[in-house]
Amino acid sequence: MKGKNEEQKVVVPSWYRRVVPEGYVRADLHLEGRSPLLMNSGETDPDSDDYRAFEALSKARSKTVEQKAQLRRLEWSLALYLDADLGPYIPAKNVQEMLRESATKWRRGADVSRSLVVVEYRIPLLYDGPRDEAGLWAAGYRYTTLVANAGAGSGRVQRCRPEFADWSLDATLAFDPEDLDEHLLRMVVERSQKYGLGDYRQGKSGGPYGAFAASLSESYTVLGDPTPNGEKVRDATEEKAHAVKVARIQTVT
Questions:
Q1: What are phi and psi of 74, to 5 degrees?
Q2: Would you say residue 231 lies in a domain?
Q3: Is 217 helix (H, G, I), strand (E, B) or coil?
Q4: What pLDDT, in 10s, does the model give residues 38-72?
Q5: 96: exposed, middle or buried (C-beta count within 10 Å: 0-12, 13-18, 19+)?
Q6: Is residue 90's pLDDT more than 90?
Q7: Which residue range(s) make up the domain with 220?
C-alpha cells in the first residue's frame, strides 16, 4: 500500500507552506494507516449554501427517504477536509495537536506548541482513489452509523463521515533544537501512535479508527537555511549535561 500511495504523491504548492524560523532543523514524519481514518472537519463555513441547507433539513420533523439521503450527503460533504488543488487533506494543526498531547507525558506539551512547526498548512492524505468530492462519494468513501442522541428526546441519530480505509501521509516538521531535543521528539512521535488521528479515534473517544504506525527521519537542514543553533559544537561540560538530560527522559519512559 505504501508503494501505491507514493505513486500518487501530491505536490504541495509553496503557498501552503509555513516560513520556517531561523535556526530550526527539519525532519520528515510518515504516518502509515493501520485502521480506517474518519474525517469530521472543523473548518466548515457556516455561511455556505451546504451548511445552511444541512441546518434547514436537519430541523425538519418528518423527512422522506430522499431527504434523509440528501441529509447524509450534506453531512458527509461538510465533514470532508477537501482542497481544490490537493484533494482530501489533514490540517497541520491536527498533527501538531496530536504531537503536543503525546508530549504531555514528559510535561513538554508547551514546548511542542511553541517550538515545533508543521511546515505544510494542509497535508495531503495519500491513498489510491479519486481526489474530488463527486468521485469520492460515488466510490463509497463514507461510513454511516447510528449513534446515541445527546440532545433532548434521546433515541439514536444517523451519522455519515468520510472514510479512508488505506491511507498514509507525509509531513515536514521543523523544530528548534535548543528547545526540543531530537531524541525526545522521536519518543513523542512513537507515543503519538497511542492517540490516533481523525474522528472516533482511540485517544479521544476510545474508537478503533485512525490508528497508524509512525516514523521520523533523521533531522536535516535545507540548502539556504541558516545554520541552526542546535548544531553548535558542545564543550565537555555541555555534552555531560546533555547526556544527563537524555538519561532522565529515558528513565521516565
A1: -65, -45
A2: yes
A3: coil
A4: 999 988 888 888 888 888 887 888 888 888 899 99
A5: middle
A6: yes
A7: 2-39+84-133+169-252
CB 122 within 8 A of CB 86: yes
The SS3 of residue 13 is coil
Nearest to 86 by CA among 149, 16, 10, 142: 10
Instruction: Tell me whether strands 25-33 and 82-83 are parallel, antiparallel or unpaired.
Output: unpaired
Residue 55 lies in a domain: no
Which DSSP string corresponds to 160-214?
EEEEESS-EEEEEEEE-TTTS-HHHHHHHHHHGGGT-SSTTBHHHHS-SBS-EEE
Q: Which residue has the cell 498548512?
A: 121
Residue given cell 527521519 in the structure block? 217
186, with CB counted inside 10 A (0-12, 13-18, 19+), is middle
